[in-house]
Amino acid sequence: MPPIKTTRLRPFIIAFKFLIFLAAIYVIYQKLSHSEHKDISTFLGTLFSSTNSLLVFLLVGAMSFLNWDLETRKWQILMKPYEQLEYSKAFRSVLAGSAVSFVSPNRSGSFIGRVLFLESRNRGQGTGMSILGGFAQTLVSLITGLLALSICLFPKNFIEHKTLIITLGIAASAVFFLLYFKSQWFARIDLKKTVFKEIAQPFQEIRNEQRIKVISLSVLRYLVFSLQFALLLSISSLQMPLMQLLLCVFIIYFIMGLLPSLWLGNLGPRELISIMVISSFYPGDLGTDEQFQVIWPSLVLWVVNLCIPALMGSFFLLAKRVRT
């Protein structure tokens, strides 16, 4: 019996992921509809009436610029051997990549938007470098999550599954460590098509100095968007210490790193994972109103860090005249 082609299964895979997305959104809607904070305008008025909350929102907004600044500098370092990117061009390239990845499964389309801003002769290498940059960011997320789980000594809901979680985390970390720090091994695979050779070329040519700089910026960027999430959670009514919230965020991103993501920046599943993780640390039961206090910071961060940059990137894509 001949094997089933992946292209035939693709529509079913996409449909399955879309159903998961709809189910997650429905669950979140149900939780919000039973919350005391159904009147969003009243909730926002209460939230912004606090000076502390307003300062946190301003800080989170400023940190979003720092987040994408670090990613831009990573992209400049990655592309330096092939093309000297001015900061403004690199910034537009990164946000264009964010726009494409926003609507692509597993956020896999980032390289498409980025390489459009490169010289045509460098687009194959740009694709490879974009992939390597993604490996670095995922590796940081996985290792930090494992450390957070170790520090927390496995909260209540994780005790039953700690062996599976550790095994998956270590295995995934090992894979991404090899993909990033030993990428030259994979470049030795005999690739017949020229386009694949161009993509794999950076895997062989990237220098250790570049790897260290990129992984360092990935750590800084990870700390920035993790602290953003923790700060937003800190002004909710959960009344949990900031350090504990930060550890929760590390574990949330760790689990998200293990699971295949959907489009729209993983909206829906991320909120459910956040509820699951924070409920493990919360001293009491996480009721409907407490769950709302987990959901809204996640949604705010989704808008600030993903929606707005994706909209800006879409504008840059429309304004870009692609050179062939």
Architecture overview:
- By secondary structure, this protein is mostly helical.
- Helix content is 75%, strand content 0%.
- It has a domain of 216 residues.
- The protein has 13 helices and no strands.
- Helix 6 packs antiparallel against helix 7, helix 6 crosses helix 11 and helix 10 crosses helix 13.
Structural class based on helices, strands and sheet pairing = mainly alpha
User: Unreliable runs, pLDDT <50, ≥5 residues?
Assistant: 1-6, 34-38
- What is the makeup of the main sheet? none
Helical fraction equals: over 70%
Strands, total number: 0
Q: From N to C, what is the helix and strand string?
A: HHHHHHHHHHHHH
How large is the count of helical segments?
A: 13
Radius of gyration: 21 Å
C-alpha termini separation: 43 Å
The pLDDT mean sits at 79
The 3D shape can be described as globular
Taken as a percent bin, the fraction of beta residues is under 5%
